């Protein structure tokens, strides 16, 4: 299977709700040939990094909007700035601002859910969940990773946060609990290789040095000519996207204005109302959902 599927429907349409699933490829923009760029986030995780103003929040919001509109999808949002993911706070299972204790607590809960899900997957004699299982996708989105790993709380809390996050990123991908994380700090202390390599998708927005571009994409890509330093500072939303096992690809992320973001979040809240169209059907796996 290709790492990034190009318009799998064979048409030029962008998948939209209702009926959208996080198991469907997620549209994030176009490549340099004008082709749609679609990601299979559920099984891969997504790391987004680059210097301030490059367009990271745009991509984060695309992921959040898709998840908000997707059927049977729950969101856990960590946003120390409040305003990036705030529009979705009413429909998120958890919305954490600048509170590292709450962040640690929610990550612990997520790891418990992941462990329960693996017990269930084992009982089904399989290795990962599929859309037919009717288990909800739980998408965790973190905007400004560095706030939780270097700024808020004590050193011990920051290390605990990092350890738990590493656990979730490595466990989540096979049990329907992917992570999207973003940072403007492109250094090894924020994105150590051992964490970065757990992300199946890495997206580098403009960087100032080859070294920081390599921190995101992986050691050696800049020497091969794939460096986010070559992105024009005025070309906001442009990035290099690396999908596991592939080579980096130039993309231009789609962009949602603040008004569009709030409109989508409002629509998603309406769609998810108890009598709405996205009430999950009873499933054989519902007892496992209770663990969440
Ligand atoms: N895909 C895009 N297409 C066109 N313009 C964009 C795109 N992405 C971002 N921009 C423009 O660039 C500005 C900064 O983008 P954004 O806030 O996403 O950057 P950022 O990398 O998240 O910055 P910060 O790290 O400071 O949060 C936006 O306000 C918008 O005007």
Automatic annotation (TrEMBL):
InterPro entries: FtsK/SpoIIIE/SftA (IPR050206), FtsK_dom (IPR002543), P-loop_NTPase (IPR027417). It holds the Pfam family FtsK_SpoIIIE. The keyword Disulfide bond does not apply. ATP binds at residues 50-57. Residues 34-214 form the FtsK domain. Keywords: ATP-binding, Nucleotide-binding. It comes from the Bacteria. PANTHER family: DNA TRANSLOCASE FTSK, SPORULATION PROTEIN RELATED. This is FtsK/SpoIIIE domain-containing protein.
């Amino acid at each position: 299977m290709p790492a990034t599927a190009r318009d799998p429907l064979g048409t030029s349409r962008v998948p939209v709700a209702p009926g959208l699933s996080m198991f469907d490829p997620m549209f994030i923009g176009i490549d340099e040939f004008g082709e749609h760029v679609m990601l299979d986030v559920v099984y891969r995780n997504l790391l987004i990094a680059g210097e301030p103003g490059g367009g990271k929040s745009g991509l984060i919001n695309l992921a959040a909007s898709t998840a908000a509109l997707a059927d049977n999808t729950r969101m856990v949002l960590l946003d120390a700035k409040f305003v990036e993911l705030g529009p979705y706070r009413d429909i998120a299972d958890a919305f954490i601002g600048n509170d590292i204790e709450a962040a640690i607590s929610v990550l612990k809960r997520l790891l418990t859910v992941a462990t329960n899900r693996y017990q269930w997957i084992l009982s089904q004699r399989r290795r990962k969940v599929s859309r037919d299982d009717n288990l909800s996708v739980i998408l965790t989105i973190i905007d400004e990773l560095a706030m939780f790993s270097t700024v808020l709380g004590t050193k011990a809390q920051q290390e605990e946060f990092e350890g738990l996050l590493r656990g979730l990123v490595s466990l989540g991908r096979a049990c329907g609990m992917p992570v999207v994380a973003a940072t403007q700090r492109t250094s090894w202390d924020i994105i150590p290789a051992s964490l970065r390599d757990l992300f199946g998708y890495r997206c580098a927005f403009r960087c100032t040095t080859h070294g920081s571009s390599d921190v995101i994409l992986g050691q050696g890509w800049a020497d091969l000519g794939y460096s986010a330093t070559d992105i024009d500072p005025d070309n906001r939303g442009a990035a290099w996207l690396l999908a596991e096992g592939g080579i980096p690809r130039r993309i231009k992320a789609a962009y949602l204005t603040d008004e569009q973001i709030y409109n989508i979040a409002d629509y998603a809240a309406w769609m998810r109302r108890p009598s709405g169209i996205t009430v999950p059907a009873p499933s054989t796996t519902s007892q496992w959902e209770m663990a969440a």
